[in-house]
Amino acid sequence: MAWISLVLAGLFEIVWASAMKQSHGFSKVLPSVVTIGGMIVSFGLLSWSMRTLPLGTAYMIWTGIGAVGAFAVGIMVFGEAVSPMRVAAALLIVSGLVVMKLATP
Q1: Among 75, 62, 57, residue whose Cα is nearest residue 16
Q2: What transmembrane ranges does the database entry give (predicted)?
Q3: pTM (2 decimals)?
């Protein structure tokens, strides 16, 4: 259950990061509320997963899911640039997540 909680925490990180972009510096109410709500849920799930998972593993997986997910949302939703170097960087993050998962007892 800790791993499921951690993945959900990472997904909510993508939600709040995307909503923060749409809030335009917290000047729009609905995206601002989604940002704060997403943060609360994400941090809560991360905290719950850390009851059993090591700190370094949990934090790395959480930030990795958020980073790669936000990268993908930026491309698909916000029309951000795609370049071979940016894709390679995202793939390096994913490979690091896989290695960390395999290295965690």
Answers
A1: 62
A2: 29-48, 60-79, 85-103
A3: 0.89
User: In the numeric block, which tokens belong to residue 27?
Assistant: 């000047």
pLDDT in tens, 29-59: 999 999 999 999 999 999 999 999 999 999 9
Sort residue 20 into left (φ over 0), alpha (ψ -120 to 50) or beta: alpha
Map the chain to HEC letters. CHHHHHHHHHHHHHHHHHHHHHHCCCCCHHHHHHHHHHHHHHHHHHHHHCCCCCHHHHHHHHHHHHHHHHHHHHHHCCCCCCCHHHHHHHHHHHHHHHHHHHHCC
Query: CA-based Rg of the chain, rounded to a whole angstrom?
Result: 14
Inform me whether the pLDDT recorded for 105 exceeds 80. no
